[in-house]
Design a protein that fits this description.
Number of helices: 9
Distance between the termini: 128 Å
CATH topology of the largest domain: Tetrahydropterin Synthase, Chain A
Helix content: 55-70%
Strand order of the largest sheet: 3-2-5
Order of helices and strands: HHEEEHHEEEEHHHEHH
Shape: rod-shaped
Strand content: 15-25%
CATH superfamily of the largest domain: Band 7 domain
CATH architecture of the largest domain: 2-Layer Sandwich
Radius of gyration: 41 Å
CATH class of the largest domain: Alpha Beta
Number of strands: 8
Oligomer: single chain
Structural class: alpha+beta
Length: 311
């Protein structure tokens, strides 16, 4: 009930005024005392019934603590939307405002709390993102590289190992991104240190690195205890670009060009060998005759050239 509503406030004043006059007429001063005690009791009932509730929507989890000794009590997971309730609410527009407020106490998103409980923080059930950049990572050869990374993750408190629920209740609301960032950075550093600079620039290198990082990071979040994150998938990991010193990048480009040239020459040689291998014995004799004529023609041309110079 909302006391700011004029109708509700007027009804309360009339009711308690009438009750006070009736009590005084019936019991004199004792009636006033009894009425005061009833009002106090009524106020306590209202406080216990309406005050100790918290709104937790469908996309968040409430973290409940004991407000006296600061100990963790429980997680409150917001229920999924009720389509039937929403339909009924939509088709009852004629309720007076304070009546709707009174009935809202039965809303499933209002969490009933015990007298010593309170919702201290909330954890989002939506997909979240952690990202960063690692600089001066060293490959096997000791070459420094810089790489950007991004991880998409979702918190699921139902997966938390029971013995660490009280710790994660304090860590997840504010530090889930830092937890992912720390473990992703550590795993990526170890992976880069095991690779050569050539392997980081090969075909499909980033995709393979993302796959391996996903597996390592998922193990760190679930073993030996589950920290409360849904299993990661390769599509949740994004890496790149990889930046190396300019002189190293130029050297890699030259090496790549040489590799292409060597592959081209090797391919041409293989095709030539295949073409020669397809010749018959008669074709080989014709080629030998043509080569002999070419040699003779070259010698005659040289002889004529020397004779012209002498004359």
């Amino acid at each position: 009930m909302n006391l700011r509503q004029p109708i509700a406030f007027a009804i309360l004043v009339l009711f308690f005024g009438f009750a006070t006059v009736a009590a005084y007429r019936a019991f004199a001063l004792a009636g006033i005392i009894i009425m005061t005690l009833l009002l106090v009791l009524f106020g306590i009932v209202l406080y216990v019934s309406f005050r100790k509730a918290a709104l937790v929507d469908e996309m968040e989890v409430g973290v409940v603590f004991n407000r006296f000794n600061n100990s963790f009590t429980r997680f409150v997971i917001g229920p999924e939307p009720d389509a039937t309730r929403q339909y009924n609410t939509y088709h009852t527009p004629n309720w007076i405002p304070f009546g709707r407020t009174l009935l809202a106490v039965n809303d499933p998103h209002y969490v009933r709390l015990k007298w010593f409980e309170e919702v201290r923080s909330r954890i989002s059930k939506k997909s979240q993102t952690a990202k960063g950049k690692l600089e001066n990572l060293r490959t096997v050869e000791g070459i420094p590289v810089t790489i950007e990374w991004k991880v998409s993750y979702t918190v699921d408190v139902s997966l938390i190992t029971p013995k660490i629920r009280h710790k994660m209740a304090r860590a997840l609301p504010e530090s889930s991104e830092k937890m992912i960032a720390g473990k992703a950075g550590q795993a990526l550093k170890h992976l880069i240190e095991l690779r050569t600079i050539q392997s980081l620039y090969g075909l499909g290198a980033l995709h393979a690195l993302e796959q391996e990082l996903c597996q390592r990071l998922d193990r760190q979040l679930t073993q030996p205890v589950n920290l409360g994150f849904e299993p990661l998938k390769p599509k949740d990991i994004s890496l790149g670009p990889i930046v190396v010193p300019k002189e190293v990048e130029k050297a890699l480009e030259l090496a790549h060009q040489r590799q292409i040239q060597a592959e081209t020459a090797a391919g041409a040689l293989i095709r030539l060998q295949q073409a020669i291998g397809s010749f018959s014995q008669r074709d080989m004799k014709h080629l030998a005759e043509l080569e002999r004529l070419r040699i003779l023609d070259g010698k005659e041309t040289k002889s004529l050239f020397v004779y012209d110079i002498q004359n």
